[in-house]
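User: Guanylate-binding protein 1, Hondaea fermentalgiana:
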Amino acid sequence: METRSQTPSPQAQGQPYPAGWRAAGAAVRLVRPSVDRTRIQAEPDALSQLELLGDQEQVRVCSLSGTQREGKSTLLNMLFDGGVQAGTGFQAGHAMDPETAGLWIRLRRDPEDEHGWLVMLDTEGLDSPHVPQFYNWCLAALALLVSDCFLYQSRGSIDARSVDRLDVILRVAEQLARHSQQDQDDNEASQPSFMWILRDHHLTMKHEPRREMSEKLSEVAFRSLKRSFGERYDCFPLPSPHARPADIAHLAFEDLEPAFKDAFAHLKRRVRGLLRPGVRRGDRPMTGPLLAGLVRTYCAAVGDRVGALREIEDMPTQAQMLTTLAAERSVRAGLAAYDARMNAAALTMDSLGCHHAVALEAASKAFSAAMLGDANELENRQAALTMQNEIACFESDFCLQDGEIIERRKLASGKLKSLATRLQRRASQMLAEARSAFDETFEGPATFDSPKDVDASWLALCERFPDTDLGRNAQCVAKVSEARIHAQITETLRALQKEQESLQERVRVEMSNSEETALVEFDHLRNQVQSLSTDAQEVSHAQFVALSSIRENMGALSAGLEAARQELETLGASAVSREELESAGSHVQTRLTRVHDRQKQVEEAAQHKARELEAQLEAEVDALRRVLTTKDKELVRLWTAIGDISCNISEIHDHLGS
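Assistant: Predicted structure for Guanylate-binding protein 1:
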């Protein structure tokens, strides 16, 4: 058992101690740390000394935890026996190195209970240099768990760092208590009293200290405080003991500041009130053997690292935290520079690689500018690797190709992966919109009037969605070609239909003109025929009249001849000679002959004229027949052409339908 060789205080001298107790009034090491401060172990001799107290006398423990070099040991010595001089009780000093390592205890008889003991427990400072934080937290948590009154000390005021430290200590205590309950069924959970001592306090509080402390704590820390202590928590401001704290070890209590002495007297009454015999923790009183068992159990729990203790142990130190924060700041600066470059760029899947290289260079420059100058090379490389993985994390595998082993890299995660995924998603969305617009535009073959309209619509879609592979999509190109063919066929059909309509109009016009021409020519021929008939009738009538006149003349001549014959016969022989009669008869015969000849000429002329009129009429009729025949042939040709066009249109429609 390690003790500090020093003269017991006057209060400790002459007090009865258990038989075999070898350190009357002196400080005894209860828990020793390992050299690297990663393990703690209970001192067997100290545990044996506690077990000498027996099960019949109650032990009340008061512990004090806080940062180093703030007078914890001195304050405990004063609470124990009122002395502040060096060489009594817990070792105190003002050098840079801490005086207390591990846990130390002092034992004395309770002045208010002749069958009870008071144990003052001093702890190592919570922020000792080059010491793992887990070690500090476990020491404070162990002190809390074995104490009836747990004093937590900070300087000045309640700050966020002290609150966070207390919250971790309470969480570690919960884990240790839970583990000890699994191993020690006879040890029931209990709630000690808690008091936050504000050393060298000089500020004015708005409210009473307990309320002030409750309002300064975070919601999470206050819940932890309530779970650990219930309503047994308080706060006590303690002013500075002296203008020169370094001289306090050489001063008597009467030499301290009056304000401090008054506040300390009040604090001592409060602490003694929390440790008076009537106040208990749980259903069983704390005894020496029970205290030794608890210390042994909690030390084992710390060594086992059970439950969340493993995670708490991995929490970084302050220096590690600063280094980590600096690295995180540098990584954030690099990532911000990368994001700024990538957000300012017009990203596409084709240009993503080039923009990534430029942005990565900018990120490296920003990272180097923000990195702490005193950070070691390993930390810089680790932070740079973290930034690179945040930007682009690749997975590699190896394969055999052409007899050689080659490495294949695949983008697994990171900002570049997110950008690529977002671009791919946007490209897919744009492609879906492009396909929808394409399907809407090229819904059917009858939507375009000409191939030029198809090409114009296709070009407009490609310009509207330039970031898609619409122009290289084989199905879209084939559908556009099909639409172009349909548009060309539609244009041809429309031209054929127009030509058909034009031919039909021409046939209608030609038929109308032919009918009108035929009617006009027929009327003209009919008029000519009527005119010829009228002329023939007039000629025939004139000839008939002439013939009638000739017949009348001939009749008159015949009558004259007959009269002359009768006169001759009457006269008989007359004085007219035969020659005269013959001459007269010859003259009459000549005239009759001329009349017959004239009649014959008139008849021949009438017949000739009639033949000429008939020939002319036949010629006109033949000409009209020839015109009508020509028109009929032309109409037949037009109708044949219209029929061919209709057949072609029907075949094209049938082909399109199939």
